[in-house]
Write a structure and sequence with these properties.
Helix content is 79%, strand content 0%. The protein has one domain. The N and C termini lie far apart (23 Å). It is mainly α.
């Protein structure tokens, strides 16, 4: 999971991340990766994509990330925590 998010975040600008999220509207996991990557770039831009389904999925991913112990997982946990606080 961490590698996909890192690849998405490092290769796409904020504008492209927003396009990525919109293009993957029906693919929940890819949409979530896009939202998480965008939140690392600009939390406020990512907040507009949060709804109940996304919140639930982020909570589930957060639990999985709690089992990982590396810097990428820590960044992702922080991004999710910020998004969940803002919802």
């Amino acid at each position: 999971m961490s590698r996909i998010l890192v690849a998405i975040q490092t290769s796409l600008s904020e504008e492209r991340l927003i396009d990525f999220i919109k293009q993957n509207e029906d693919r929940r996991q890819m949409k979530l990766f896009g939202i998480m990557a965008l939140s690392l770039e600009n939390k406020y831009s990512a907040e507009k994509f949060i709804d109940e389904d996304v919140k639930y999925a982020l909570e589930r991913i957060r639990k999985l990330l709690a089992l990982e112990d590396n810097s990428h997982a820590e960044k992702q946990r922080q991004a999710i925590d910020l998004l969940l606080k803002s919802y």
